[in-house]
Write a structure and sequence with these properties.
The chain is an alpha+beta fold. It has eleven helices and seven strands. β5 and β6 form a beta hairpin.
Length: 348
């Protein structure tokens, strides 16, 4: 949970940007319009303030508006929020401090532009920081107005009107806070439902696959047993091999392929003890790496005529993805396949 600048503890994933739809192309259109409005207000300072001061103030306000809108994190990072709150009073001071003519300003246009930047700052979860910016702008206007002949009382009062905009946005954010919480609860519930449905679908798919495989490989022999037929030695051997294949499907479903199952059946038919184990290490592994494990296991099964072969996929997080251990009367071999698909063969 994230602290929303002294306002409320809300999950940053469910800010006002989500409720207002300020994501993707809509957010960029909002940014374009905001920058245009700021530029229109700040352009009025050219002629009332020196060119360098007006240009610097314009750059400050445009950059602050872009940052508080475009940064995709709610609430905004502290450095960005502080810049967004500091730019308006600095820009206001630049445009009022050094007038180019001895005439009263028509209005302090930087104060109007500041209300938009600070308003967005509030919408992005930095309410206290935004109000600090409002107070700083007001302090600059009062200080410069008291000590300057270039700001008459009417101009000073008129320039304070944008404070009403900030107040309205503060009330809006307070009203919308319960809706943010409701949105969070609804999304979490939807995520839990989707996860449960995906798990059920995966389990059902695996069950269907296993039943289809059982029907394909076991139906003929099961029908003979059900009919009461006396099984021959070859059919009993077939039952033994079939039982081992079905056990492989339960112990190591990710290793069971036509290629590997055929090699395991052949090895068992030659008297080799074959054990396949899957501890889940294939999760997130590229298909070509999984195929390299199967190829290494198949090669070892085809080459072994006696002893025991254990093919094991290790748990997640191990440097070694899978091992193929061949224990034969004459020589033991150990094949390791790592997470990058590198194959290492060791013999004893």
């Amino acid at each position: 949970m994230a602290h929303v600048d002294g306002a409320a503890d809300l999950d940053p994933r469910y800010g006002l940007r989500d409720l207002l739809g300020l994501r993707g192309s809509t957010a960029w259109w909002f940014l374009l319009i905001l920058e245009a409005v700021i530029a229109l207000y700040m352009a009025r300072n050219f002629g009332q303030a020196p060119l360098w001061a007006a240009a610097a103030a314009l750059a400050l306000m445009l950059s602050a508006g872009a940052l508080v809108t475009a940064i995709p994190v709610d609430p905004l990072p502290i450095p960005v929020a502080l810049y967004g709150a500091a730019a308006p009073p600095i820009a206001t001071a630049l445009t009022v401090l050094t007038p180019v003519r001895d005439l009263p300003h028509e209005s302090v246009w930087s104060a109007f532009a500041s209300s938009y930047v600070l308003g967005v700052l509030m919408l992005r979860g930095r309410i206290r920081t935004a109000w600090a910016g409002v107070i700083a702008v007001a302090a600059v206007l009062v200080a410069l107005g008291l000590g300057s002949s270039h700001l008459d009382p009417g101009t000073l009062i008129g320039s304070m009107v944008p404070v009403g905009t900030i107040t309205a946005i503060s009330v809006f954010t307070a009203v919308m806070r319960p809706m943010q919480r409701s949105l969070r609860v609804l999304r979490e519930d939807a995520l839990m439902r989707a996860t449960a449905e995906a798990t059920m679908a995966a389990a059902d798919s695996e069950r269907t696959r296993q039943l289809a495989r059982l029907d394909r490989v076991a139906r003929p022999i099961l029908e003979r047993i059900a009919d009461g037929a006396k099984l021959t030695a070859a059919e009993r051997e077939e039952c033994r091999l079939l039982e081992a294949e079905l056990r492989d499907g339960l112990r190591a479903p990710q290793l069971v392929t036509d290629e590997l199952s055929g090699a395991a059946r052949g090895a068992r038919g030659r008297g080799v003890e074959v054990i396949l184990l899957d501890d889940g290490g294939f999760a997130g592994v590229p298909e070509w790496v999984r195929q390299r494990v199967i190829d290494a296991a198949t090669k070892e099964l085809d080459a072994t005529n006696a002893g025991r072969i254990t093919v094991r996929v290790l748990p997640l997080g191990r440097p070694v993805l899978a091992t193929v251990l061949s224990t034969a009367p004459t020589q033991d071999r150990r094949t390791e396949i790592d997470q990058d698909g590198h194959v290492t063969l060791m013999t004893d």
